[in-house]
């Protein structure tokens, strides 16, 4: 009997089209991870609180089974390409609520004169209030751009953003759309999260919801994401076959020594 090696474990995760219904997994749903913990109790047995007149085994009751994602920790790896979703996209969307991906490349117009908090662009495309944009500021070297800002007003092609830039962009500077995760009142996204040690040793959570999300940034380490939450079910024997490949997105993440907030 061979013993599986934990360091070879692979995670695949994907949004479900129907709550608690497993989805087909492919190589592109791969997620590099640091640690993962599933919890599953098929019985949740409890001891009866009733008084007994004679000694003997206590009466036990079975209750509803429970499953959970106890912990999933991974490096927060950017895709390094505008409009390309990161590996952890399903986790982020399930935890935050929604994601908007606006593909747009436009430039700052000369009139009216751009300021540190707004400008008119050649085309605003599908941009909306709350979307993130990347703004070039010519001549700005400390800190260096492009700068990510959140739109507070979109009036045709006139944009207002916050917080203010370190300086006003120049005419012709680039403004680009990108990926924005937005909070929703209800978390309506459920996930299938499958964990494989090899082709035969496998398990999956169905109907996994993320109700705890932690983003960790450190001056000397790479950023991390940690997620946890309840699930509808854990399966083992009926988990789909291990995908033929493990396709990753993005290279090494930046450390705390790079970038700005």
Task: Give me a quick take on this structure.
This protein is mostly beta strands. 26% of the residues are buried.
Integer tally of domains: 2
Which regions contain 5 or more consecutive residues with pLDDT less than 50?
none
How large a portion of the residues is in β-strands, by DSSP E? 35-45%
Q: What is the chain-wise order of helices and strands?
A: EEEEEEHEEEEEEEEEEEEE
CATH architecture of the largest domain: Roll
How helical, in percent, are the residues?
A: under 10%
**Euclidean distance between termini CA atoms:** 51 Å
- The CATH C-level name of the largest domain is Mainly Beta
- Largest sheet: number of strands, sense, barrel closure: 6 strands, antiparallel
What strand order characterises the main sheet? 8-13-10-11-12-9
Rounded mean pLDDT is: 92
Radius of gyration: 24 Å
Strand pairing plus helix content: what structural class?
Answer: mainly beta
By CATH, the topology of the largest domain is Pnp Oxidase, Chain A
Shape: elongated
How many extended strands?
19
What is the helix tally? 1
